[in-house]
Amino acid sequence: MIPALDIAEFRVFGVTFHTFGLLVAVGVLLGHHMTVRRARALGLAAVSLVDRFVLVVFVGGFVAGHMLDTIFYHPEVLRRDPMELFMLHHGLSSFGGITGGVVAGLVYVRMHKLNPWVFTDLATYAFPFGWLFGRMGCAIVHDHPGRLTDSPLGVRFAGGTRFDLGLIEFALTPLLIALVVFVGRRTRRPGMVTGALAVVYAVMRFPLDFLRATDLGPESDPRYAGLTPAQWACLGVFVLGVWMLGKARTHEPLPPPGAQPAASPPP
Fold first, then answer.
1. Exposed (0-12), middle (13-18) or buried (19+): which is 13, by Cβ within 10 Å?
2. CA dist 183 to 61, 101, 189, Å?
3. Which residues does 90 contact at the CB level (< 8 Å), separation at least 6?
4. From the centroid of its chain, how far is CA 224?
């Protein structure tokens, strides 16, 4: 069994650091770095537009991540206190964050008349690099306890050995990093990276939610027609990913860097 280490916070020179927040910050910075790096590799000239794009995606993801978490996972809390919707530090939903980031990013792309397929791939390529540190934070603070188990992969919590869903997804995220790097090197067709990641992440995430805890109160395992909100999102993301892969195959590959600006609006 894996010991449940308690390192949710630590002190350096008298200053207390919250491990989860620190790791999320590292993930955001790494995600920004990988987005800009990928933009340069694709030959995008408007790096300042890419910087602002990253900021918009992050803010949209952070706000929607909390709001959708409250609406779908804690509706009873929202009924008691509608202001909980705006308490952004009280919890996040992964798919809520992804949804908010996508919507905010598409609005930004439309406002600046950029190629949505190119910029969506930029965010998707960087996503698993930042996600690795976010899920590392989840694994450290144990905020996604799962079902009781006698598996050697279980974590020894105070109330018994359980699956730690944050830890499991953290361990699987390097596969997503390998996927986007592989697809990004194999093809320059806009949309292929996003389509591939959408399909693979949905397939990976869907079964994990069957390991969610069922004995920690009604808030621990909300279901809608037998599936969790994340599982319903997985179904939609999978279909979207398949469609994007088919559509991306019809796109012309981006020209090599220096040939022409790749961030020009689509015809």
1. exposed
2. 24, 22, 10
3. 66, 70, 84
4. 22
Residue-wise pLDDT tens digits, 42-68: 887 677 788 889 889 989 888 888 888
Residue (of 173, 92, 85) closest to 129 by Cα position? 173
Distance CA 155, CA 51 (A): 39
Q: Tell me the pTM.
A: 0.85
At residue 238, φ and ψ (nearest 5 deg) are -60, -50
In a domain, 262, yes or no: no
Q: Is residue 266 part of a domain?
A: no
* Residue 256 located in a structural domain: no
- Which pLDDT value is given to residue 67? 85
Q: How far is CA 255 from CA 18, 112, 191, 252, 265, in A?
A: 44, 21, 15, 9, 14
Over 50: is that where the pLDDT of 260 sits?
A: no
Pairing of strands 2-3, 155-157: parallel
- Counting the structural domains of the chain, the total is 1
Tell me whether residue 109 is exposed, middle or buried, using C-beta atoms within 10 angstroms of its C-beta: 0 to 12, 13 to 18, 19 or more.
buried
Q: Which residues contact 220 (CB under 8 A, 6 or more apart)?
A: 145, 212, 213, 214
CA distance 91 to 79: 16
Round to whole Å and give the CA distance between 238 and 227. 15
- How far is residue 181 CA from its own chain's centroid? 17
Per the domain annotation, does 76 fall within a domain?
A: yes
> How far apart are the C-alpha atoms of 153 and 167, rounded to whole Å?
10
Residue ranges making up the domain that contains 77: 2-248
CB 234 within 8 A of CB 202: yes
Which amino acid is present at 23? L
**Interatomic CA distance for residues 33 and 148, integer angstroms:** 39
